[in-house]
Design brief:
Strand 5, helix 5 and strand 6 form a beta-alpha-beta unit. With about 270 residues, this protein is of the alpha/beta class. The chain is globular.
């Protein structure tokens, strides 16, 4: 039996916990929960119709789990991922931007028997980009359009807010690489981190962020040029009903990734 532990009981953590309890993956069991707010983990356990779920501290959960799900935050993931790899665990990482901030990640991966899984999240076309990388990718860029209300609490606006004043119409507020983008928008641009890992890396992947108080959906446009041709994808994603900063597609992508991991048939690149 594969014992699964979920770290983070927010919107995506709750959805994954429900999926694990209702979809009945063969020889897989949701066994452990952890959240920085213990009452949220207790509430989730109460709502789930699963037997024998235990609420554990972070280190104990990782130690006892066979498969770890990180659904917490970038700051938490920077601690969780190295610990999981040192303990040779398989881990699904949802705060993908954290992988760009772990300086010794390559060394950890080289010496660990563990595995990191990264879902496509709110993007389509990741399978095509992985295939294009077998040849040569010359450029990758993503333009993200985000509701202003979902970006206001980001480090970007804490640092640059005065420069932009009052935004009333669609405004380009950032044009740079993925590494910069993830630090400015840690809760909103995990999609850019995933794109960079699939393609040509965080320093060479261009990110443009446009925001407006009129936007209601998270929109992404991805353009890739490679030796095998060009890829263009456009996503218009409805927000999650439980967390407007998260696209509903990102929630469903996490569930689909779990299904692929635990399925006997693997579809897609």
């Amino acid at each position: 039996m594969t014992r699964v532990g979920i770290l983070g009981c927010g919107a995506i953590g709750q959805a994954l916990a429900k999926a694990l309890c209702t979809q009945k993956y063969q020889h897989v069991q949701l066994s452990f929960l952890c959240d920085q707010n213990p009452s949220r983990a207790i509430e989730l356990k109460t709502r789930l119709k699963c037997a024998d779920i235990k609420i554990l501290a972070l280190h104990e959960l990782i130690t006892k789990s066979d498969f770890v799900v990180e659904a917490a935050s970038i700051n938490a993931a920077q601690k969780i991922v190295p610990l999981a790899l040192k303990l040779n665990k398989k881990i699904l990482v949802l705060s993908v931007g954290a992988l760009l901030e772990i300086g010794n990640l390559r060394t950890l991966l080289a010496t660990s028997k563990g595995t990191i899984y990264v879902p496509s999240g709110a993007l389509s076309g990741i399978d095509g980009i992985l295939a294009a990388r077998v040849g040569k990718i010359t450029s990758v860029e993503i333009t993200s359009r985000k509701p202003l209300r979902n970006l206001k609490s980001s480090p970007f606006f804490q640092k640059e807010g005065k420069r932009f004043g009052i935004i009333r119409k669609p405004t380009l507020i950032f044009d740079g690489n993925v590494r910069e983008a993830v630090r400015y928008f840690p809760e909103s641009l995990n999609v850019a981190a995933t794109l960079s890992l699939a393609g040509i890396g965080p320093k060479r992947t261009r990110v443009r962020v446009i925001t407006s108080p009129l936007y209601r959906m998270n929109q992404h446009e991805v353009r890739v040029a490679s030796s095998s041709g060009e890829i263009y994808c456009q996503m218009l994603n409805l927000p999650s009903k439980t967390n407007s900063k998260t696209s509903q597609l990102a929630v469903q992508s996490a569930i689909a990734t779990l299904s692929k991991i635990f399925s006997k048939i693997k579809i897609g690149t």
